[in-house]
Amino acid sequence: MRLLPRYAGPATTVTLSDLWLRSTCDDTGVNVDMARAPLTDDRIAEFLAELPGWQRVDDAIERTYKQAYHETLHLAMYVGAKAREIGHHPDIHITWQRIRFSVTTHDAGNRLTECDFELARWIDSIAEGHGATPLD
């Protein structure tokens, strides 16, 4: 990590992947309009092909993991922290030893955008780091 200037603000420590995501998926970047534009069905299919385990459910993508109940709560907190950082939030459903993430872009009329697929990648990474087992 290194210090990089924050868009219109003071210097902060971020990773390069954080900087890319911020530049495409939140209010600080130059590609926000493109990243939050609804995707066509063909583009959605292309993005889904790159994310094994994620399923399209109407105008959202979802994935479920298995983990001990208290660990699902920890996982939800870590995903929630990342979501807050990047300014894009999933719906999180917790039941006994299951956690399901549902992602759509509310600002785009509950349609799928590039930001949803980037958040799905973050969720996969965080879930793997927490030892959650995907239910695919």
TrEMBL record:
The keyword Aminoacyl-tRNA synthetase is assigned to this record: no
Coiled coil: none
Enzyme Commission number, as recorded: 4.2.1.96
InterPro entries: PCD_sf (IPR036428), Pterin_deHydtase (IPR001533)
Chemical reaction(s) catalysed: (4aS,6R)-4a-hydroxy-L-erythro-5,6,7,8-tetrahydrobiopterin = (6R)-L-erythro-6,7-dihydrobiopterin + H2O
Keyword field: Lyase
An individual GO BP term: tetrahydrobiopterin biosynthetic process
A GO term, aspect molecular function: 4-alpha-hydroxytetrahydrobiopterin dehydratase activity
Pfam families: Pterin_4a (PF01329)
PANTHER family xrefs: PTERIN-4-ALPHA-CARBINOLAMINE DEHYDRATASE
Family statement drawn from the similarity comment of this UniProt entry: Belongs to the pterin-4-alpha-carbinolamine dehydratase family.
Name used for this protein in its record: Putative pterin-4-alpha-carbinolamine dehydratase
